[in-house]
């Protein structure tokens, strides 16, 4: 599952291949869409959640509210079913999807971080990240990524900074699940299922928080 | 009784991650993780900090509640969760967890109203609620007078604050007096050593032409702040205990007067007081005094059940199961401004029409 970007996506992988996958792009309805999506792919595959042996979830970076939907859902599945929950960097899954689409390294991926910034990372090849993910203004990293293809919505949004912007626009849970299955099979360790926020919280107390005036 | 519904409730509407487990009206577990200390230095609840804390605490708190109750999740008859009102991003963590839990365990899901839960929690303390029940809910987020003929599907708002919540007023006055956050407990403590009649602070909306059941604490807050500032400007010491006592008296005087009047007007002989401010010792004492005089039975849960917690959500969920109310579906969403009249959020099929609540755009990204 991945909810770190506007895409709400879920997939089922049997260790060999993706057997069901779904995704919807709606930045404001992660909470509503994720469980029905999970239910849909399981129904399509003809199994119930009990059959799942591992849960993999995108840990971001991503705008926070949606990101937490996937993470808390994954953690709760893990607890209810007593199965391990693995985190993967959402940018890694996007890079993996870009690689399968034929993009060869080195390249970069970028997602929309809102506030005129992008989350981004550079890749040697589609399985190998070069450095840690970061959040920056496009103009501030344009020089560092000059000459590289940059995949993802964050690149497509800012063509002046990323002239070689391309798809895939959004991460797919199918790519995320495939990458997780590959790494698990290789005995690699994955990330803990904890959010990669990359930004400190806005410490602002809203005026009249939680006021409920039934009128 | 073993055949009463066994329900787990999840509450994340503000800064407490609460998970409670009840069997009917019996409390089995009440696990709470609070991020209040993190918010203290900001003088109020910071939504993004609250949401981050909920995510971290959610699963450990569920597991602690199950352990405390000594039950297996497989035995649950339902999962209840606060669907609103509250902070959008905070609610979303609990709603997502509840849906995942209900789905993984194949249990019915009940998205319930936070305010109705505050009322229903008293069943865990004093047994089944009389019908109707009059409820005064006072906290940092709400100040309402509610008439509840049936806590599972008929809650009627009689009045509410038109500006600040009662608990907010305590927080703000505590800030003016440099007493820290939250303000309720420290003002309560200092007020015990002060004179509640020392300063005549105004009673908001208490005129004969004012709405009988609405509250206003903004004017009081300004008046108290002005009084303190005038003292300081004159180079005099601020009598903190007298200010605390007089301010607190003004708040609880209005709250109890209006609540008792509502009971008399509606012919209700029970008054329930809930919400964080219900822990205030003077509010309890004055309500006791006035209710006794008016022949009204007062029900106030212990302080731990008045503040936000998961047990209250479980209590309402158990009542939903017991009364066969329609379940929520997997599309259940958090609704930061869920009206108090919507005691629960049944699924689209149960309703016969699409009943999907949009999460308000605010608070989605920070
Ligand atoms: Zn509350």
Mind telling me which CATH architecture of the largest domain in chain A this is?
2-Layer Sandwich
The tally of strands of chain B reads: 10
Helix-strand pattern of chain B, N to C? EEEHHEHEHHEEEHHHHEHEHHH
First-residue to last-residue Cα separation of chain A: 40 Å
Can you identify the CATH superfamily of the largest domain in chain A? ATPase, nucleotide binding domain
Determine the fraction of residues in helical runs of chain A and give it as a percent range. Answer: 25-40%
Strand percentage of chain B, roughly?
Answer: 15-25%
State the assembly state of the protein chains: heterodimer
Strand order, main sheet of chain B: write it out: 3-2-1-4-5
Q: How confident is the prediction overall: mean pLDDT of chain B?
A: 92
Query: How much of the sequence of chain A is in beta strands?
Result: 15-25%
- Low-confidence residue ranges of chain A: 208-215
Would you mind describing this structure in some detail?
The complex is a heterodimer of chains A (215) and B (366). Chain A is an alpha/beta fold. Chain A is 31% helix and 23% strand. In chain A, helix 1 packs across helix 2 and helix 3 packs across helix 6. Chain A starts with 6 loop residues before the first strand and ends in a 30-residue tail after the last helix. In chain B, the strands form two sheets. A five-stranded mixed beta sheet of chain B has the order 3-2-1-4-5, sandwiched between helices. The chains are: A alpha/beta (215), B alpha/beta (366). At the A-B interface, helix 1 and helix 2 of A face helix 2 and helix 3 of B. The complex binds zinc ion (ZN). The site of zinc ion (ZN) has 6 residues of chain B, from helix 4.
Q: Keywords, please?
A:
heterodimer; A: Nucleotidyltransferase, domain 5; 5-stranded mixed sheet; 9 strands; B: alpha/beta; 42% helix; disordered C terminus; binds zinc ion
């Amino acid at each position: 599952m991945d909810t770190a970007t506007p895409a709400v996506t879920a997939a089922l992988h049997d260790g060999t291949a993706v057997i069901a996958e779904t995704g919807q792009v709606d930045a404001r309805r992660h909470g509503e869409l994720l469980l029905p999506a999970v239910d849909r792919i399981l129904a399509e595959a003809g199994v119930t959640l009990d059959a799942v042996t591992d849960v993999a979830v995108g840990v971001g970076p991503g705008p926070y509210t949606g990101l937490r939907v996937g993470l808390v859902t994954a953690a709760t599945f893990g607890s209810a079913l007593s199965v391990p929950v693995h985190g993967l960097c959402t940018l890694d899954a996007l890079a993996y999807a870009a690689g399968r689409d034929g993009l060869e390294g080195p390249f970069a991926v970028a997602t929309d971080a809102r506030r005129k910034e992008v989350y981004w990372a550079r890749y040697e090849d589609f399985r190998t990240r070069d450095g840690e993910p970061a959040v920056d203004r496009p103009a501030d990293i344009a020089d560092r990524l000059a000459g590289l293809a940059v995949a993802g919505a964050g690149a497509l949004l800012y063509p002046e900074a990323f002239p070689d912007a391309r798809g895939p626009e959004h991460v797919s849970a199918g790519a995320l699940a495939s990458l997780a299955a590959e790494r698990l099979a290789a005995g690699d360790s994955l990330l803990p299922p904890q959010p990669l926020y990359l930004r400190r919280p806005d410490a602002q107390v809203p005026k009249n928080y939680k006021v409920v005036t039934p009128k | 009784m073993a055949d009463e519904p066994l329900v787990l409730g999840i509450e994340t509407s503000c800064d407490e991650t609460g998970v409670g487990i009840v069997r009917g009206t019996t409390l089995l577990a009440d696990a709470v993780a609070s991020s209040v200390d993190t918010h203290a230095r900001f003088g109020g609840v910071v939504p993004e900090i609250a949401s981050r804390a909920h995510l971290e605490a959610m699963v450990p708190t569920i597991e602690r509640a199950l352990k405390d109750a000594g039950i297996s999740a497989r035995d649950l008859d339902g999962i209840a969760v606060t669907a609103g009102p509250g902070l959008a991003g905070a609610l979303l963590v609990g709603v997502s967890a509840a849906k995942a839990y209900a789905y993984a365990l194949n249990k019915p899901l009940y998205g319930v109203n936070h305010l109705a839960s505050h009322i229903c929690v008293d069943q865990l303390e004093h047994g089944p609620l009389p019908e109707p029940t009059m409820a005064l809910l006072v906290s940092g987020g709400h100040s309402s007078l509610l008439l509840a003929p049936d806590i599972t599907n008929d809650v009627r708002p009689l009045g509410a604050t038109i500006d600040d919540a009662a608990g907010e007023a305590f927080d703000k006055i505590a800030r003016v007096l440099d007493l820290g956050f939250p303000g309720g407990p420290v003002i309560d403590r200092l007020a015990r050593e002060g004179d509640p009649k020392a300063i005549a602070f105004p009673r908001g909306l208490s005129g004969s032409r004012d709405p009988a059941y609405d509250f206003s604490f903004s004017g009081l807050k300004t008046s108290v702040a002005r009084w303190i500032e005038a003292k300081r400007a004159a180079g005099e010491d601020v009598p903190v205990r007298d200010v605390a006592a007089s301010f607190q008296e003004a708040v609880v005087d209005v709250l109890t007067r209006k609540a008792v009047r509502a009971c008399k007007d509606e012919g209700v002989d029970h008054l329930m007081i809930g919400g964080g401010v219900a822990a205030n010792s003077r509010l309890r004492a004055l309500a006791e005094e006035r209710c006794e005089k008016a022949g009204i039975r007062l029900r106030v849960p212990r302080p731990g059940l008045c503040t936000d917690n998961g047990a209250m959500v479980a209590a309402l969920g158990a009542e939903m199961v017991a009364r066969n109310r329609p379940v929520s579906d997997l599309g259940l969403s958090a609704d930061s401004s869920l009206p108090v009249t919507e005691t629960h959020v049944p699924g689209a099929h149960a309703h016969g029409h699409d009943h999907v609540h949009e999460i308000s755009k605010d608070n989605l990204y920070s």
